[in-house]
Structure prediction request, 753 residues.
Amino acid sequence: MAALAQEILFWALAVMMGIAAIGVVTSRNVVHAALYLVGTLMGAAALYILLLAEFVAWVQVLVYVGAIVVLMLFGLMLTRAPIGRANFDNDQRLMSALTALAVFGVTSYIMVRAFEGQTIDLTRETGTLTSSIGEVIFSTYVLPFEVVSVLLLAALVGAVVIARRD
Amino acid sequence: MPISYFLVLSALLFSVGIYGVLARQNAVLVLLSIELMLNAANINLVAFSAFLQEAGVAGQVFALFVIAVAAAEVGIGLAIVILIFRNRQSVDVDEMSLMKW
Amino acid sequence: MQGALTSPVDWHAIAPELVLTAFACLVLVVDLFLAERAKWLAMPLSAIGVLATGAATLSLVGSERTTLSGSYEIDAFALLLKGLFCVIGFIVLAISFDYFRSGIRYQGEYYFLLLCSLLGGLVMSSARDLVTIFIAIELISVPGFIMTGLRKGDPKSNEASLKFFLFGVLSTAVMLYGMSLIYGLSGGATRLDRIREAIDGSGNEPLVMLSVFFVVVGFGFKISAVPFHFWAPDTYEGAPSPVAAFLSTASKIGGFVGLLVLMFKAFPEVADIWRPVFAVLATLTMTVGNLIALKQRHIIRLLAYSGIAQSGYILVALALIDPSSPGVSRQALESALVYIAIYAVMDLGAFAAAVAYARRGGTYFIDDYAGLWQRSPVLATLLTGFLLSLAGAPPMAGAWAKLFVFLATINAQVYWLAVVMGVNAVIAAWYYLAVVKRMFFEAPELEGPVEVPYFLRAVMGVAALALLVVFIYPPVITELAERSIL
Prediction:
């Protein structure tokens, strides 16, 4: 029963994310495109909860949806980008669509063949504990973790330098 | 649930992102499409992590790193967009005629 | 897990990174308290930082250490590259000083970002883990996006920055997708040696091929291999020229290190799959780079395309790797390391000369190099030395660099690639020598002497001398490379 519910949930999310993703790349309105991206990102967060990865799910909501998309919307507002309808596409749409279709076909074919018959057990009592994520970050991955902090500092300083008015 | 469900969904997002990168003209819209691709990679990572159960914590950690890096990149990207808009009043990548695209 | 948590960090092993980080932060803070006239002091401070990092690297010579449960390795390979990154950092600082002191604000922030990017290079040299490699390549490129846009009032610089940013982020996304597949197919391993073990037994060739494809495309952008090179010439031209020098050496070499480590440490067993990919990439990169370089009139664009072509020779080495014959693989990696080291010095030298000339009484246009010999014999001689080296002509080290890759190709019996290299060396000689001819045999159109600052002159002189010494006595570098293979 639980398995069926999960299956239905997955398909609902997948359809929603697919439609939202296509909205991101076809919308004629920049703000709508950003909002469609929110749809995809929220769908991904729900997917992570389905996959029992709660911590990643909440980070996704907080950082991605909460910070990144809000930043994008601010950027759109500050640049007073044309909010109404406008043509944002170049004339290579057919070629782009064919390329994308080819990538999708090849990638999904190879991946489906490679992982044929492998299933994820989603009926576990508990998912990944946040404490175990913390332990791994602060042991095996402590160096990249510290390096990311330098990266964020550099990005912060750089963004201020670039965006401020002289 | 078969892991291939998640992988096909991620392949879909990735290729939709590729379409956006190739077909869009506005820098912010190209950036939105690239975010789709980054998310596709993250879905893969978390799906593999769930598949491996206890042995797969690293996948989620990797996904967290990706989110942090994406935040840094978007911050810089928008700073550049704002700078260009201030100088030129337009952020169309195809319009950049000063240098060949 | 509890044991891993309490396992001590080997502080000495990461000393170079710690020193560099400390100096980067110091530069940022000190800059805050400097008056506008004294902002240039950030440069000597950064230079001291790079020298201290070099000293910390030297203090590790001879030791083999791994730390953080095997994901961070200090071996001869890592130390050689860390040393090289320090040399690159120092030369770029020397080029930057004169350029940034006049005209560009944000000197302190620039030097901070430069040191951060350099830190990415140091981390990359030691990274033996997917996550660390990913973060390192990001730390190398992200400050680059900003440094490219530092000439804020110049629309060319703005666009260079945006273009570099979009291509950079795109390459990250593609590379990351490949890495996520590697993570899956190796059963959740991120350490390269574990990935290697997992792949050996998986027999999942299409998936391995797909993930390697994505990763190579991602790195292809970073090393500006054809057909992923479009961003490079425009970015170099629009960026402040010292930044272009940095991008064409440190940033590119960072990408190469990541690629070399991944291919040698994680995927040697499936080399049959990716060797042809690199052979094609190398051929395209050399040929297209050289052909487009032929018609360039702007020295920075010329160096950009020539740099693309030079990447092709390093890619040749990757196309030779063959796990079934360790001798060939060894020689290929050695020649790649020799090439990378010599390329860095000669390319930076050429950039330094170009920047010095454009700053002091000249321009970036090759036509204006006419008669430079009469205006500044020193600068003309130095630039000639670097260009000869880039062309692979004696008496400079570049000749050995090309010859070693060539010999490795012959030894691996990939004769067609050797022929491609030979033809390309001839094409390349044409456009380098055209500049030399213009400097020596044409009458000057611009007037006046060219006053190159003494510090920059000294750094260029040492670089040229080093290239000369390596030509006369190549074991200086070959023995180092021999001891430093992975």
